[in-house]
Specification:
This protein is of the alpha/beta class and about 190 residues long. It contains six helices and seven strands, in the order βαβαββαββαβαα.
């Protein structure tokens, strides 16, 4: 029997796994996430996912399967992580207003049995409607902005800013569960369905 470990404290990632029927334990990663944002965005998120997973996999047992992920928003080639403060959240949201942007999630699976790792990324395009600075400020005051890449959460009030989406919704939330399930089956012979 495999023991899934989520190397993330994200309640959203935990919920996605739980709702997909994947029983897991949570061990947040203590990896140093200070890597160069000069990397192409897809390499950046994959590198962070691997770093997070590897930090937790150090203490893994044979039956453990470590899952890790990192999500960023990319607009005009700029990587947007979580806002540093209120003003940063406002600047992010106003930059995204009325435009398409990409949400990239790097995700990694590491086997405790042999240390083998697989890392991929998923990209989803999101278009925001035009909104005013006043609306952005109201949204930030809701409290959703500060712990989410790009300063918004599509699963909460942030959905009111989203006009269109092209790709995996769950990727925008933080864990592309369909792509993860394919990786588990193809690379590790584990069928979570």
């Amino acid at each position: 029997m495999k023991n899934f470990i989520l190397a993330s404290a994200s309640p959203r990632r935990q919920e996605i796994l739980r709702e997909a029927g994947v029983k897991h334990t949570v061990i947040p990663s203590d990896a140093d996430e200070n890597i160069s944002q000069l990397l192409p965005p897809e390499k950046y998120v994959m590198e962070l996912a691997l770093l997070k997973g590897a930090a937790v996999a150090k203490g893994a047992k044979k039956e453990d399967i470590v899952i890790s992920a990192d999500t960023v928003v990319v607009s005009d080639g700029e990587i947007m992580g979580k806002p540093e403060d209120f003003d940063d959240a406002k600047a992010m949201l106003m930059k995204l207003s009325g435009k398409w942007h990409s949400v990239l999630t790097g995700f990694c699976v590491i086997s405790g049995a042999d240390g083998s790792a697989s890392v991929r990324y998923e990209e989803t395009k999101v278009k925001f409607r035009d909104f005013s600075e006043k609306e952005a400020l109201r949204y930030i005051r809701s409290g959703e902005s500060m712990d989410k890449a790009g300063g918004y959460g599509i699963q909460g009030k942030g959905r009111l800013l989203v006009e269109k989406i092209d790709g995996d919704y769950f990727n925008v939330v933080g864990l592309p569960i369909c792509a993860l399930s394919k990786m588990l089956k193809e690379d590790f012979g584990i069928d979570i369905l």
